[in-house]
Amino acid sequence: MRRWRSGLGLLPVLFWLSLFLVVPMLIVVVISFMGRDELGNVVFTFQASSYATFFDSLYLGIYWDTIVLSVVTTVLCLLFSYPLAYYIANAGPRMQTWGLALITIPFWINFLIRTYAWVLLLRTQGVVNNLLIQFGWIHEPLQLLYTKGAVLLGMVYTFIPFMVLPIYVALEQMDKRLLEAADDLGATRWKSFWHITLPQTKSGIMTGSVLVYVSTSGMFVVTDILGGAKSAMISNIIQSQFLGARNWPFGAALSVIFVITSLVLIALFNRAMTSRHLAAKEGR
Amino acid sequence: MHTKRKNHPLLGIHSLLVMIFIYVPIGFIIAYSFNSSRLAADWSGFTLDWYVSLFHNRRVMEALGNTLTVAIAATVVSTLLGTLAALSIGKVGRKTKAGMGGLLYLPIIIPDIIMGLSLLVLFTQFHIPLGKLTIIIAHITFCISYVYVIVSTRLAGMGGQLEEAAQDLGANAWQTFRHVTLPQITPGIISGALIAFTMSLDDFMVSFFVSGPSSTTLPIYIYGQVKRGISPEINALCTLLILVSVTLIFLAQFVLNRGKGQKKQSVLPF
């Protein structure tokens, strides 16, 4: 089979991604070990002071809050998404096409617009407050916007499609003969879900969770638009170091810490899921 | 399909509620874009005024021009590079293949904020002024991956029998490519290009870092306005952007699965 003469066609992509993806990230790592002058320009000295600054309780606290918010968002997305994905995967062919289309559409609607929608709903003169007042449940508008709750809501709202789609794909691809076998052996629906469907769709849960976790912790726009001054996340701090405060070494150090901790958390999660999967297999 | 589980009614209710949760906020933006009240607090009649004033807003039109320039340039280059990579990856050894595959997935996995700031650092260190060019370069970088994933999935799905047959019949490598491979992957290329265009059109995070004052794109303009509060014009602009993105994605999906006998393929990267 001769499709294409050689692998030379990979060279342009290799060149492009090295120059505009790999090299820039390496530069960020290098800058994280440098200092800066009074004007905010990067100075070529080797120091680890930016990393030391991170261990200030303020930044550690913000990062801890970021991790907690991202984990809670991931768990909520999973709880809302799994039943929905399951429903779509088991629906009739027409319903399935529609369900899939309906869940794909928000994936492609700009998250900025979807976040803005919540400003319309949650602000003091917004839809939710107006409705509550009309129903007579409250007399004064509630402060819904610029709260931690609004941020959590915005995050879950933004990332639900990222969770539904991988789980749906996993449900579609799982070996359904196992379910038949379980039925024949007299397993209850719940039992076969717990021992077959759930372990078989772990790849989807994993993909979805990693996507949601990484996206949430890197998403400064939702906190920026729906959150108050106190709900800043690590990504807001990073963003302001590069675009506002002009402390690049510190911003770079935060980015490095952010990427490394994300990778470690993902690896830990991966291991936990895999070992449970093995245990389930052995128990069968 | 007797292996399908019959859905429990509670599952149906849950799914309906999640769908309502997803669509009601978007529905309000669309509805308010036609509301004649400037405050959008309550409904005071249907109007198209906000759409009209959008087209008379010089800054919006300028941002639209920038957005289209960037999206077209990024689509052309990333489609070429991504397709070339997809065609070539089958020709290299296993290790190179794994390495390149990983590299090509990197832009999808890396958080946008990291990609944006590292490109900002690169451009600044090499004294490249921030503007349309830097946005185009940034967009090409992440669009390549989406084109690559779609075209290579398409290639993997078609098998090699037709190409083998063509070569057995005496076609040379170029003829085989031109008359056998290319027609079969064309839907993948078009679909990939449409996805790349949509990704570029919608991108905010990366553009935010690498755009200059005179190269505002529509998402960056929207961000600036949203930070100031709500406005009916922004509702109209958002509605239009939603309409365009959704249409393009449906088109991409349609083109990809139009042919008979093709394995169904999704435009999503996972």
Detailed description of the structure:
The complex is a heterodimer of chains A (284) and B (270). Chain A has one domain: MetI-like fold. Helices cover 74% and strands 1% of the residues of chain A. Chain A has 13 helices and two strands. Chain A is globular and about 75 Å long. Chain B has a single domain (57-256), classed as Orthogonal Bundle (MetI-like fold). Helices cover 74% and strands 0% of the residues of chain B. Chain B is built from eleven helices and no strands. Chain B has helices spanning 9-32, 49-56, 58-88, 94-109, 112-125, 132-158, 161-168, 173-202, 205-210, 218-228, 232-256. In chain B, helix 6 (132-158) crosses helix 8 (173-202) and helix 7 runs antiparallel to helix 8. The model of chain B has no long low-confidence stretch (mean pLDDT 90).
The ordered string of helix (H) and strand (E) elements of chain B is HHHHHHHHHHH
Low-pLDDT residue spans of chain A: none
Largest interface: A-B, 93 and 94 residues
By DSSP (H or I, 4+ residues per run), the number of helices of chain A equals 13
Q: How would you sum up the major sheet of chain B?
A: none
Number of strands of chain A: 2
Shape of chain B: globular
> Could you name the ranges of chain B where pLDDT drops below 50 across 5 or more consecutive residues?
none
Q: Could you estimate the helical fraction of the residues of chain B in percent?
A: over 70%
Calculate Rg of chain B over CA atoms. 22 Å
How much is the average pLDDT of chain B? 90
The counted number of beta strands of chain B is 0
CATH structural class of chain A: Mainly Alpha
Number of domains of chain B: 1
CATH superfamily of chain A: MetI-like
Subcellular location (chain A): Cell membrane
Family (chain A): Belongs to the binding-protein-dependent transport system permease family. CysTW subfamily.
Keywords (chain A): Cell membrane, Membrane, Transmembrane, Transmembrane helix, Transport
Membrane topology (chain A): Multi-pass membrane protein
